[in-house]
Each structure stands twice: as C-alpha cells, then as structure tokens.
C-alpha cells in the first residue's frame, strides 16, 4: 500500500506541476512538500498560496497536510475554507484531491473578492448619504416599529426582546426589510427569532435571513452564526457584513417577500443595504469601519452555516 501511495503521489505532483506551471513550486521533493499559488486575475492582493505536504498514508488512508496563506485571509475565512477542503476530502477518500482543493480555493477567493467589493461599495454609498435627509420612520404593512433614534437607551427584555425595524426596500415587486435585536446569548437569539415570527407578516416572508455575533462576557470567545433560510449564501454575506462593521451582541434578520421576478445578484445588495442602513440608524456602526477584519487573532470562533431547503 505504501508503494502504491508513493506512486500515486508522484503522479499527482507531476500532474499539478504540468497544470499550474510557474505557480507550482516544489519546496522539498523528498518530503513531497510543495506550494501552489492561486492568482487573482484582477488584483494580486487577493491571491492565495496553499502549501501541501503529502504524508506517507495519502491517499489511501489519510488527507494531505496543508496551510493557506494570504494577505486578506482572516480567521473566519480561513476556518470556512478549511471546512470546505476537508469536506472535499471526506467525499473523495482514497482519491487524490489536491487539484480539487486548489480549484476550491480559487473559487472561494473569487467569491470573497466580489463579496468584499460589494460591501465596500455599500459602505461608501451609505456613508455618502446625509443622515438628516430621510429620517428613519420605517413602516411596512402594519409591522410594529420602534424609533431607532432612541436606541441609546435600547435595552433587551428577555421575556419580550425589543425589535427595531428598518425601512423597507422594494425592487421589482420583491420587498426587503431588516430587523435588529440586541442579544447576549444563543438563547436570546432563539427567543428573539420566536418573538419576531409572532408577527404574521414576517413569519410568512419567503426568506428570513439572519446573522448574529456575540462576545462572551469577560472572555475573548466570539460566537457567531448565520442562516440562509433558503436564500443560498445570503446568511454568510450578512454575517460578513457584521464582521467587517465590527458589530457585536446583535441579531440582524432580513425578511424578503418574493414578488415573482428573479433579481439575480441585486438581491444580495438589497439584503446588505437594508441591514447596513438599520445598523447605521441604530448607531451601531463605527465611522470608517470598512477594514477587512473578521476577528481578533486570539478569538475562538463558533461558526455554523445552516441552510434550509
């Protein structure tokens, strides 16, 4: 088996070298340690490098060992990417997987570069607005609202959490509205979601996309989670918005009422836009918070992505 593994490793390395050319670098041929550079076509800052070590029992009974390096790659993104690569290995045990890994890293890199560009553009758009031009007085089909201008004294009643509702955005018959709740525990999140869906209009929304971040008191542990609620990738995008804006101890939910016309990528812009507007109106966004910082280096993250079908 060891001879078979060694032979398959050599064949895989030869193939990778041929495919990636100058982007493939053999670091140590004896240890079978090598780098593959994944270049971003438009901006080298987004490029990533995956370093791979092939252990003796790969691919028959163990995965490759790897590290991923990139200027922009924060803890949360790295954890998410690692999960993707290990999932690929689990689905392809006893197979050579490095090529699939490299292409998965490339896809991940491209998705994140687009996502961060969208959020930066959204930040610029909202920051350019004059705060007093349109006072926030959100209403939507008799959904109860609270005055976000009074958020300074915003308190959370565990029995009935206060919910702030943002101004709806309507595009091609689809309507989006954000809802904001202060939370300090995962139980608070469940209670808030339950309370929010007591409103029939919200409960009947096509999607209720949510994300939250909670900092445990007297610790560096960050708990964060997101739920697409059937709108693929929307929850993770909403969570990234909270991370980039450094919002903590809040649950943000964006309801979408589908109007029968597909919006394509515009739906993600509307989801983030109405969430960003409500966070800004609630004074929960620090000025100039556009840095791509996902967490403190010493933070431990608990991140799950829940998809409903």
UniProtKB/TrEMBL annotation:
Biological source species: Paramuricea clavata
Keywords assigned: Cytoplasm, Repressor, Stress response, Translation regulation
Location(s), subcellular: Cytoplasm
Compositional bias annotation for Basic and acidic residues: 289-301
Lineage, highest ranks first: Eukaryota, Metazoa, Cnidaria, Anthozoa, Octocorallia
PROSITE patterns, alphabetized: RWD, UPF0029
Identification of the protein by name: IMPACT isoform X1
Region (Disordered) residue spans: 288-309
Chain segments annotated as transmembrane: none
Family affiliation: Belongs to the IMPACT family.
Any one GO cellular component localisation term in the record: cytoplasm
Gene Ontology terms: biological process: GCN2-mediated signaling; regulation of translational initiation
């Amino acid at each position: 088996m060891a001879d078979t593994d060694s032979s398959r490793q050599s064949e895989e390395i030869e193939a990778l070298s041929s495919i990636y050319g100058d982007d493939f670098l053999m670091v140590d041929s004896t240890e079978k340690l090598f780098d593959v550079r994944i270049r971003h076509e438009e901006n080298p800052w987004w490029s990533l490098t995956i370093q791979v070590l092939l252990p003796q029992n790969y691919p028959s009974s163990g995965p490759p060992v790897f590290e991923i390096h990139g200027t922009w790659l924060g803890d949360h993104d790295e954890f998410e990417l690692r999960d993707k690569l290990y999932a690929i290995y689990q689905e392809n045990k006893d197979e050579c997987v490095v090529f699939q890994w490299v292409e998965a890293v490339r896809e991940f890199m491209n998705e994140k570069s687009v996502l961060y560009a969208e959020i930066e553009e959204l930040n610029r758009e909202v920051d350019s607005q004059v705060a007093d031009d349109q006072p926030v007085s959100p209403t939507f089909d008799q959904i109860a609202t609270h005055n976000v201008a009074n958020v300074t004294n915003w308190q959370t009643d565990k029995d009935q959490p206060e919910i702030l509702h943002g101004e709806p955005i309507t595009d091609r018959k689809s309507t989006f509205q954000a809802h904001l709740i202060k939370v300090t525990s995962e139980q608070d999140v469940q209670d808030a979601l339950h309370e929010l869906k007591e409103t029939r209009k919200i409960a009947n929304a096509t999607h209720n996309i949510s994300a939250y971040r909670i900092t445990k008191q007297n610790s560096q542990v960050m708990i964060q989670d997101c739920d697409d609620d059937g709108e693929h990738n929307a929850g993770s995008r909403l969570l990234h918005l909270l991370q980039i804006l450094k919002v903590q101890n809040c649950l943000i939910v964006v309801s979408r009422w589908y109007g029968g016309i597909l919006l394509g990528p515009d739906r993600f812009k509307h989801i983030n836009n109405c969430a960003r507007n409500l966070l800004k109106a609630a004074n929960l966004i620090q000025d100039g918070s556009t840095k791509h910082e996902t967490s403190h280096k010493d933070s431990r993250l608990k991140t799950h992505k829940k998809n409903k079908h």
